[in-house]
Amino acid sequence: MNWDFFVELFGIAASLIVAASLMLKNIAWLRLINLAGSLCFVLYGFWIGSISILLLNLFTAGVSIFYLFRMMKKSERPDAFDILFVNPQHDEYVRRFITFYADDIKKFFPSFNPDLENGTLAGTECCFILRETLPVSVFAYRKGGGNENIILLDYSIPSYRDFKNAAFFFHSAIKRIAKPGDIFNADAEVPAHARYLKRIGFERIGHIEKAELYRKKVE
């Protein structure tokens, strides 16, 4: 492989990285992958002797770094996250939220029934996780016997699906609804949800029909 051919392949790869970043829904990942593509184009511009490509992508990389840094600083503020309790049967915003994201919710909770009066959320405790005052996650559970609770829905919108919402809920907000030693049980109907539960500290305890069963104790 000669040098010119390698450089052209590198340029094509950089283009594919930038194109892939534009298809991401998560803003943080979009910025991060776009940054990687811009840095690749900086090298490409240097190798082919194009000052315009080099400078343009240095600027683009700088913009991505600026916004990534600002997003990181905002998420580290003590008031960046909060919890808002709602009544799923009487709160109009819950109805609109569930209706708007129903198809995406089904990807992770195939058995989810969006009917608020008689469906999955009927008779549940429900809250939104707020991030910079934006409702980015909805969490619903039903109290079981003794100290056990059953999670019916734990969903984050695509743009904020970075595990920070879950970290806030299970490390901080959960103290407002449970005490140390309480148990939260969850079913995983799809592999993506199972991986999520494992990552946030749930332990697999078995399976029933097509769902895997997981459990987490409040510390």
What share of residues are in beta strands? 15-25%
Output the helix-strand order. Answer: HHHEHHEEEHEHEE
Number of helices: 7
Can you count the beta strands?
7
Low-confidence stretches: none
C-alpha Rg (nearest Å): 22 Å
Structural class: alpha+beta
Number of domains: 2
- Architecture of the largest domain in CATH? 3-Layer(aba) Sandwich
Strand order of the largest sheet: 1-2-3-4-5-7-6
CATH level 3 topology of the largest domain: Aminopeptidase
Distance between the termini: 57 Å
| Biggest pleated-sheet summary | 7 strands, mixed
What is the name of the CATH superfamily of the largest domain?
Gcn5-related N-acetyltransferase (GNAT)
How confident is the prediction overall: mean pLDDT? 88
Task: Specify the CATH class of the largest domain.
Answer: Alpha Beta
Tell me the helix content.
Answer: 40-55%
Which of globular, elongated, flat, extended, rod-shaped describes the shape?
A: elongated
Description:
- With 219 residues, the protein is of the alpha+beta class.
- It folds into two domains: 3-75; 81-217, Aminopeptidase, CATH 3.40.630.
- 46% of the residues lie in helices and 23% in strands.
- A seven-stranded mixed beta sheet has the order 1-2-3-4-5-7-6, with helices on one face.
- Helix 6 links the parallel strand 4 (148-156) and strand 5.
- Helix 1 packs antiparallel against helix 2 and helix 2 packs antiparallel against helix 3.
- The protein is elongated.
- The chain starts with a helix and ends with a strand.
